[in-house]
Write a structure and sequence with these properties.
The longest helix is centred in the C-terminal third of the chain and has 21 residues. By secondary structure, this protein is an all-alpha fold. The protein is built from three helices and no strands. 83% of the residues lie in helices and 0% in strands. Helix 2 runs antiparallel to helix 3.
Length: 65
């Protein structure tokens, strides 16, 4: 039983699918925070709405498979 669990963890650690998507999402989030810090009153609320929509789309995509 422990061997199966360790084997599954090993396979999951080697799986690199979706890694690029996560990196791009992190980059987009960082840029949104940076722009929001520079222009807090003008762009901040719009970025918040965009990021919320992106998060809901990603959650929906994750639920599909």
């Amino acid at each position: 039983m422990v061997y199966t669990w360790v084997r599954q963890l090993s396979l999951m650690a080697k799986d690199r699918r979706g890694q690029d998507l996560i990196e791009y999402a992190m980059l987009a989030g960082f840029l949104a925070v940076a722009v929001g810090a520079v222009f807090p009153s003008n762009i901040g609320p719009g970025i918040s709405q965009i990021m919320s929509k992106c998060a809901s789309i990603m959650v929906e995509a994750g639920n599909q498979g």
